Amino acid sequence: MDLKRDAEGHLADPAAWSEEVARGLARESGIELGADHWRVINAVRRFHAETGVSPSMRPLVKLLRADERDLASSIALLRLFPANPARLVARLAGLPKPDNCL
């Protein structure tokens, strides 16, 4: 995919995001997006639209407790988004890296 990205792989221009872009970014990470992935990505995009914040892991779990309770755990998120879920979710959602992520 030929998109402008920052040094950590996040979109330089969040307005360039689309579901197709998310699918391509996911493929690069070895992930095939399913319904649960989209539930998390859409929740994070809504949260960012309201707050301007890309949530790190604890806030992400707390956010998911409101509407996506079955996905609101570190274990569930690691199954969907291996290694660093909050950072990977932000990348796939077209958002900046969460402030508290390494």
How is this fold's topology laid out?
Elements: H1 19-28, H2 35-51, H3 57-67, H4 74-80, H5 85-92
Helix pairs in contact: 2-3
Model description:
With 102 residues, the protein is an all-alpha fold. It has helices at residues 19-28, 35-51, 57-67, 74-80, 85-92. The chain has a single domain (14-92), classed as Arc Repressor Mutant, subunit A, CATH 1.10.10. It contains five helices and no strands. Helix 2 crosses helix 3. The longest helix is centred in the middle third of the chain and has 17 residues, at 35-51. The protein is globular, with a radius of gyration of 12 Å. The model has no long low-confidence stretch (mean pLDDT 91).
Structure in a nutshell:
This protein is mainly alpha-helical. The protein has helices spanning 19-28, 35-51, 57-67, 74-80, 85-92.
